[in-house]
Amino acid sequence: METPNFAQVMSRNRFQAILQFLHCNNNETAVPHDQPGYDPLHKISPVIDILNQTFAENYRLNQDVCVDERVVRFKGRHQLKQYLSNKKAHKWGIKLWVLAESYTGYTHQIKVYKGRRNEARSENGQGYQVVTELMTPHFNKEHHVTVDSFFTSPKLVHDLKDNGTFCTGTVIKTRLGMPKSYRNAKLQKGDMTVKYQGQLMAVLWADRRLVTILTTTGSACKVNTTNSRGTDVAIPSAVKRYNYTMGGVDLGDQLLLQFEPNFKSVKMWRKLLFHQLVTAAVNAFICYKRTFVVETKLDHLKFHQQLCQDLLGNHRDGTRNQQIRTVRPVHRQLARITERHFPEKIPDEKRKKCVVCAGTERFRKSRIQWWCATCKVGLCIDGCFRRYHTRINFEE
After folding, report:
1. In the structure, what pLDDT confidence band is assigned to residue 112 with cuts at 50, 70 and 90?
2. Cβ neighbours of 330 (radius 10 Å)
3. Which residues form the PiggyBac transposable element-derived protein domain (predicted)?
4. Helix, strand or coil for residue 311?
5. Rounded distance, CA 305 to CA 250, Å?
């Protein structure tokens, strides 16, 4: 089984040769493992930096954004490989910290987790460090960032507010600065407790379990919404906003999984490279939906197909002669088995050698005047034509 269009653009051998010698950085400038300044992402860091800059320059974020983790599937050996039990799609891989737009899933910034040994740890914790680094370029722009309990702390929410950024997030009740009365609180389902510290509001709400929310926006009132069973329920406004604005990274993951290459590679940086390229294509699709207001917009699949055609258009025109040499023989395509074929005389009284008789004494001595006009190969009309179009391994 194969996809014939791929062979019309590039042969398998040429693709593998390019992949073998593909590099994104100069290996001679890499710092050795045992020396200060070692960067485990040296091979891929230029691509990440360029794409992060491109993502930021070509898209203006809406007010609601979110920060969450993303996993690039990888089962090979590498010091950056992580196990994340909360991920359903794939639990082993390279962890990324992602800043995304809440409602579209647009990936705005990516930060690869380098591990404890290769990153300076903040005295305020890793979650605080990640959110502040990703949000620093967006301070004092009235953005609202949503995070989960791994990142949220009273200090983070306070500091974001001091820098003109709103924040909402679930939080662990034992975090430093949280009300001590929340630690052993017992509430009936639907009950709510609210405490304030300046502009910071802490909400403790009893659903199926106790939920604790920190926020610098919204009010303590309850609002009506519909749960997963279709029942109308009243929940705190902070919880509703968290539910609506936390899914940006997960939405981006869903779009990525549709087209992410699922090939095996022992080199971690290659997996990151192709993941970044697919991320760029998904971001382009989001920009397309937001920019072009037409009735007949392309869906995700057709957009990617059109993108591939546009990228390959110049290549096909400019290297036509080269493609003739690199295209795989037509007799290896599945189309010769499934489509309709008829024998015809070769135009202009030309003659060809039969591809079925290849390697035989008859092939070396004779040329024939019959061919398959669809497959463009010479075929003896007495048996070879039927053999060629009915057997996958017609040479045997």
Report:
1. very high
2. 16
3. 3-285
4. helix
5. 24
Listed residue (170, 171, 195) closest to 181, CA to CA: 195
Count of Cβ atoms closer than 10 Å to residue 57 Cβ = 8
User: Helical H runs in 298-378?
Assistant: 300-318, 320-326, 335-338, 361-365
Q: Which residues of 177-216 are buried (b: 16+ CB within 10 A; e: fewer)?
A: ebeeebeeeeeeeeebbeeeeeebbbbbbbeeeebbbbbb
Which residues, 6+ apart, have CB-to-CB distance to 363 below 8 Å? Answer: 353, 354, 357
Q: How far apart are CA 100 and CA 107, in angstroms?
A: 5
Query: What does 10-50 look like in DSSP terms, one character per residue?
Result: --HHHHHHHHHH--SS-GGGPPPTTSTT--TTTTTHHHHHH
Check if the beta carbon of residue 262 is closer than 8 Å to that of residue 74: no
What pLDDT, on the 0 to 100 scale, is given for residue 3?
Answer: 58
Contact between 244 and 96 (Cβ < 8 Å): no
Instruction: Check whether 292 has a pLDDT greater than 50.
Output: yes
Q: Strands, DSSP E only, in the chain?
A: 64-73, 81-83, 92-101, 107-112, 144-147, 166-170, 192-197, 200-206, 210-215, 222-226, 232-236, 343-345, 370-372, 377-378
Model pTM score: 0.75
| Numbers of helices and strands, H then E, in the chain | 13, 14
Question: Are the CB atoms for 298 and 306 separated by under 8 Å?
Answer: yes
SS3 for 322? helix
Question: Is pLDDT larger for residue 192 or for residue 357?
Answer: 192
- Residues 256 and 216: their CA atoms lie apart, in Å, by 32
> How much of the chain, in percent, has pLDDT values that exceed 70?
87
Number of other CB atoms surrounding residue 46 within 10 Å:
13
Q: Is residue 56 a contact partner of residue 39, using CB atoms and an 8 Å limit?
A: no
Tokens of 86: 């909360």
Residue 252 neighbours by CB distance under 10 Å: 25
**202: β partners:** 195, 214
Residue from 209, 210, 144, 149 nearest 175 by CA: 149
Whole-number pLDDT of residue 246: 93
Q: How far apart are CA 357 and CA 355, in angstroms?
A: 6
